[in-house]
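Subject: for your reference before the review

Hello V.,

The reviewers asked for a structural picture of the protein, and I figured it would be easier to keep everything in one thread rather than splitting it across files. Below is the amino acid sequence we used in the manuscript, unchanged from the supplementary table.
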Amino acid sequence: MQEDLITILKGQHAALKKEMIDLKSEVEKNAPNCVLIAASLANFRNSLLEHLALEDNVFYPQLIEKFKKQNLSIDSITLFINEMKIIAGKVTAFLKKYENADNIKADLKNFRMSLYDTISSLLIRIESEEDGVFIYW
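And here is what came back from the structure prediction:
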């Protein structure tokens, strides 16, 4: 199960990356379809929340227990988890702000900039997990 959990999380990361790429492609069109973008964001939100639940409720608690059993300090992993929660909060705030086509259309320029920032933050989080904490598993 241990290796399977990492495989599942990495698979979710890959799916989230694909959703972000597809979303970015639509947003960059000359006349983006805001209804399609809002629907894509809703799907992305669901995928992200499912992923975060698995990390927050299974992966991170088990990782902390693993550290404790090996008498390792959990300070750095706790700090990392808190930093990841800040990123998750920013992403969910973005998704809430632009949860419908009207909000996106009314603020398309800022939406685009916020989307790029959000994607960048998520890619950093994914990389930090896959190249960082996953190696401790």
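For the response letter, the relevant points are probably these. The helical segments are 2-27, 34-69, 75-97, 101-106, 108-130. The radius of gyration is 17 Å.

Happy to draft the paragraph if you're swamped.

O.
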